[in-house]
Amino acid sequence: MSLASQALLVLTNAPNEEAAEQLGRLIVERRLAACVNILPAMRSIYRWEGQLEEANEVAMQIKTTAAHYTELEAVIKAAHPYAVPEIIAIPIVDGLPAYLDWITQETSKERNA
C-alpha cells in the first residue's frame, strides 16, 4: 500500500447537527471522504484564550485517504464556523480489506458520481 492510499480516520467537531450535516455533505460530494459519521451531541470542556469553556458539540468521524488529507483539511477550515477547528488524522493501520478498498474507490476523483 502506498502512503497516499493509506486510509485515515479524521476527527472534527461541529457546534450543532445542522453544521455537521452541511460540512459532511460538502466533504462527501467533493469525494474528499467516502463516509462521514455524525455522532450524537456531546459536552466539551476545554480551555480557549485563557478561559475555561464548555459547549455542546457534535462529533464527526471522516473516512478518507492520506492523498486527500491536505484538501480535506483546507475545506474543513474554510467551511467550519470555529476559528480553530479540531482536525485530527489517525492512520487506520488495519481493517477489513474490502472496506479499506471502498474508501479508496469512493474518494477517487476519476469515479463517476
TrEMBL record:
Single GO molecular function: copper ion binding
Matches recorded under Pfam families: CutA1
Gene Ontology BP annotations: response to metal ion
Domain of life: Bacteria
UniProt similarity note: Belongs to the CutA family.
PANTHER family according to UniProt: DIVALENT CATION TOLERANCE CUTA-RELATED, FI09726P
Protein name: Periplasmic divalent cation tolerance protein
Organism of origin: Herminiimonas fonticola
